[in-house]
Amino acid sequence: MVKYIEMEKLTDEKIKELKIIANDIRKSIIEMLLEAKSGHTAGSLGMVDIFTLLYFHSLRHDPKNPLWVNRDRLVLSNGHICPVLYATMAHSGYFPKAELLRLRKFGSRLQGHPHREYLPFVETSSGPLGSGLSQAVGMAIADKIYENTKTIYAILSDGEHDEGNTWEAIMLANKEKLSNLIVIVDRNNIQIGGNTERVMPLGDLKEKYKSFGWFAEEVDGHNFWEINNAIYKAKNHKGGPSVIIAHTIPGKGIKEWENDYKWHGKAPNRDEAEKALKELANKKI
Amino acid sequence: MLNHSLKLNTKIWNDDIEKASTRLGFGKGLVKAGTNNENIVVLSADLMESTKADLFAEKFPERFIEVGVAEQNMASVASGIASMGKIPFITSYAIFNPGRNWEQIRTTICYNNQPVKIIGSHAGLSVGPDGGSHQELEDIAITRVIPNMVVLSPCDAIEAEKATIACALTKDPTYIRLARNDTPLVTTSDTPFEIGKGQIVFVPEVGLAQVGIISTGPILYKVLIAARLLEKRGIKVKVLNLSTIKPLDEKSVIALAKETRAIVTVEDHQVAGGMGSACAECLTQNYAVPMEFIGVKDKFGQSGTPQELEKHYGIDIPDIEEKVEKVLKRKV
Asked: Residue A5: pLDDT band by 50, 70, 90 thresholds?
């Protein structure tokens, strides 16, 4: 079956709407992390724009019927940035926003890293790096064999390209010509121990994916129009899997936190959070 | 004598008893399961002939995925396939699957509680000449420790076929331990099989047994030979075949301990963490009796014929007799 997807074009008005939502999601993330007293701030803030576009524009899903069988699948491989996943899901209607303050609490559905047993609306439990792409590849294979109606999205960190398992999945996706698979790599150049190029040089990820047979695009991960355009091209690439290398700014939105790897695995204290929330409240969109 | 109610192979004491490998039984069972259920998908890590997954691949090429020598990827890909409502079987040597890919099995399969069936062939010392690197002696320990996992270890090709068909019908992540070599067919197609149920395959001619022997996997044949020799010497034993290691059939294990008050466990696996350990965990809490363990004792294997290795590592017929005598002396 040949699929051709005519995506909704992004108008200036729609982009403005997405920017307002993204700003609100950033506020939620800071409030959640303040309340949780631990968690991953930088990567969560850096991926807000991409998650906003996916949940409020690209994904075929139904927040009121989360387990709808024909939904597109979104696999978050680097589960440590789940504050952005939870916040975006709450803002799009999967569960009440008030629940976001239960992040990392005992008995909460919002586990420190996503766990399907507690929150079945997430497609996979994740956290241990390097296996999310494999799971997305499995979903894409199953869709291709049986229905061929869905798009499988996988969000990967750049750091988890250190894992050999990721490259095993990259090879298999090409072998199986999974044109229903779109990977978005959060290329923010930081991992827990510092700059990715110092910890383990990744180099030109776009060229690496291309040499593995993938269709690859590179975008500014905070430019809705560019990301949307890349997703459009990826959906209509029929020869095999697609990757979008999204250059993002860790800590995006809070000037003092941006590009500082120390915010990778740290939550803000009350003073820091209040200052950040004020900055977001005063943002002109 | 054999427990005749189980309709075991009546040729068991003959030299010309039929033999087949448990991996072949799996391969046949897989084709049957795949014929009954079109949601079964099979993945191979470049060992489809060795694992006998090739039988399925020939029949259902559209539901067969060759992932290359990449067992970690295979495990997590299968988790993704299972999350779409399918039943994937992942196949390789036990040393790599569940050995190499343990964390992927733990997190992407069991933590997600996906119905992936993990097939580890060539387990145990019986791999022989390939040497210690390929003799997986730790797989029971590392699989039974993971929540949600079911662990099966069939005693012959027929039981392996039944285990394969049965596990395809459940929603549980399941590990099936298989061996490479042709081993005697202890059971028949008429022998009942149920996941989670052990079976008393050997009983005294008259009266109660003095020692209970619990066995898992194809080594059961040697256990039966030893049981018959012991019987001839006037030592009455009962043999329990535990083809499901998890969930443990506690009822049967405890009943055997209550009757015999002395237990010997036998497995082609490390003593630490194996089937014997699982029985000990149960019995020490419910009905503590003296126990002896037959298995490999904190050593790696090496090259040799299976017979040489079983003798060297103390899991042969005379070792079983010796441990039975030892535990008999320890009885209170």
From this structure: very low
Evaluate whether B129 touches B302 at the Cβ level (below 8 Å). Answer: no
d(CA B78, CA B74): 6
Chain A residues touching residue B108 (CB < 8 angstroms) = 124-125, 131, 134-135
What is residue B211's three-state secondary structure?
A: strand
| Structure letter (DSSP) for residue B6 | G
Which pLDDT does position A8 carry in this prediction? 66
Give me the residues paired with residue B37 across strands.
none
Check: CB of residue A154 under 8 Å from CB of residue A9: no
Subunit contact A124:B83, Cβ cutoff 8 A: yes
How far apart CA A183 and CA B70 sit, in angstroms, is 20
pLDDT at residue A261, as a whole number:
83
Residue A213 is classified by DSSP as: T
d(CA B130, CA B304): 8
CB contact under 8 A, B73 and A165: yes
Predicted confidence at residue B8, as pLDDT, reads 98
Query: What pLDDT shows up at residue A9?
Result: 79
Q: How many Å apart are CA A75 and CA B108, to the nearest integer? A: 12
Tell me the pTM. 0.95
Chain centroid to Cα A211, Å, comes to 24
Question: ipTM > 0.90?
Answer: yes
Largest interatomic CA distance in chain B? 61
Q: Out of B49, B71, B267, B325, pick the active-site residue.
A: B71
The answer to whether B113 contacts A116, with C-beta atoms less than 8 Å apart, is yes
Catalytic, B136? Answer no
Cβ distance of B73 and A116 shorter than 8 Å:
no
Tokens of B204: 């005294």
Which neighbouring-strand residues pair with A246? A186, A219
In whole angstroms, give the CA distance from residue A139 to residue B172: 19
B273: which residues sit within 8 A by CB, 6+ positions away?
B138, B140, B141, B142, B144, B145
Rounded Cα distance, B88 and A134, in Å:
14
- Nearest by CB to A116, which of B67, B81, B112? B112
Given a contact cutoff of 8 angstroms between Cβ atoms, the answer to whether B293 and B276 are in contact is yes
Q: pLDDT digits over A242-259, tens only? A: 999 999 999 999 999 999
Task: Summarize pLDDT for B141-163 with one digit per residue, the tens.
Answer: 999 999 999 999 999 999 999 99
